[in-house]
Design goal:
The protein is mostly helical. It has a single domain, classed as ABC transporter involved in vitamin B12 uptake, BtuC, CATH 1.10.3470. The protein is about 70% helix and about 0% strand. It contains 13 helices and two strands; from the N terminus they run ααααβαβαααααααα. It has a two-stranded antiparallel ribbon with strand order 1-2. The longest helix has about 30 residues, at about 5-35.
């Protein structure tokens, strides 16, 4: 068996993009729904970690990882609805509530997840895309979760629904002008609360990927800030679900760069390469926050454009 060399690095980055992008994809799609309604949820990091803990705990107790995925979505939905309900109160800032929710979700997940740090829960099955190669490294790199394919289908479905369905139209009206939505008889607070709940549900499912597929365990340092980075990813994708998919692949590839280079013996600057997704996040925020650029596609009611 020959050493895959630099071709192996490219395949490893590609495999990493397919694998690591999954939580980015689900969280960004969830935040896309939330922001389309005119609200920002910075609590996605807490929801993501809570979803990971719920998925792992339920999978361990029941022996069924798909029940864990459902539990993760349910936990994310509840936290999302909590965020949405609090934000309907007078003089409440959604940014501050999101930060509080993030801390609450992280603390609750760490507290409830203590018994599951050591036990091994069953993981989600993987779809092997590397069967054409006899290299174990390539075969391992191209193990894709079914959640990735589900996320891809969801991105396409959301892009279509935003433009071609009544609820998509209502969501965009509420996000662009709450006064116009009220004049048309829509309940703005209800729409935003439901959208925030839906965003939390998807973020929770993204968390289940972390604990049940990759890295496939439960620990307090599981997320590494992916929930917060997804907010920047949505801005970079210009609130387009299909663009969220492409941006998630970009972030996933950046996250896989360090391990891929290490696999061919490049260890100098390893930690710098591991910081690539965080550098990318900062670069995106600097570029998109430039006063010379307009946030094309941004809902008019978002605080970042008002």
């Amino acid at each position: 068996m020959s050493d895959p060399g630099w071709a192996g690095v490219l395949i490893a980055v590609l495999g990493g993009a397919l694998r690591v992008s999954t939580p980015f994809l689900f969280v960004s799609l969830g935040e896309c729904i939330t922001e389309k309604s005119g609200r920002i949820n910075l609590g996605l990091e807490g929801i993501l970690v809570m979803g990971a803990m719920a998925a792992y705990g339920v999978a361990f107790e029941t022996g069924d990882p798909w029940l864990g995925v459902l539990a993760a979505g349910g936990a994310g939905l509840l936290l999302g609805l909590l965020h949405g309900a609090i934000c309907t109160l007078p003089r409440v800032n959604d940014i501050a509530v999101g930060i509080g929710l993030m801390l609450f979700g992280l603390g609750l997940a760490f507290f409830l997840g203590k018994p599951y740090v050591q036990p091994k829960a069953p993981g989600l099955p993987a779809i092997p895309l590397g069967g054409w190669s006899d290299s174990p490294q390539i075969q391992s790199a191209l193990q894709v979760s079914p959640l990735f394919l589900l996320g891809l289908a969801l991105a396409i479905a959301l892009a279509w629904a935003f433009r071609n369905t009544r609820w998509g139209l209502v969501l965009r009206i509420v996000g662009d002008s709450s006064d116009a939505a009220r004049a048309m008889g829509y309940r703005v607070n209800l729409v935003r609360t439901l959208a925030t709940g839906a965003g939390g549900l998807l973020a929770g499912i993204g968390g289940s990927f972390l604990s049940l597929h990759y890295p496939g365990s439960w620990s307090e340092g599981l997320s590494s800030g992916q929930g917060l980075m997804a907010v920047a990813l949505v801005i970079f994708a210009r609130w387009n679900p299909v663009h969220c998919f492409y941006a998630a692949l970009l972030f996933g590839g950046a996250s896989a760069l360090g391990p891929a280079l290490q696999s061919v013996g490049i260890t100098t600057g390893y930690y710098l390469f591991n910081a690539a997704p965080y550098v990318l996040t900062l670069a995106i925020m600097v570029v998109t926050c430039s006063p010379r650029r307009t946030l094309h596609g941004a809902p008019g009611e978002l605080s970042i454009v008002r």
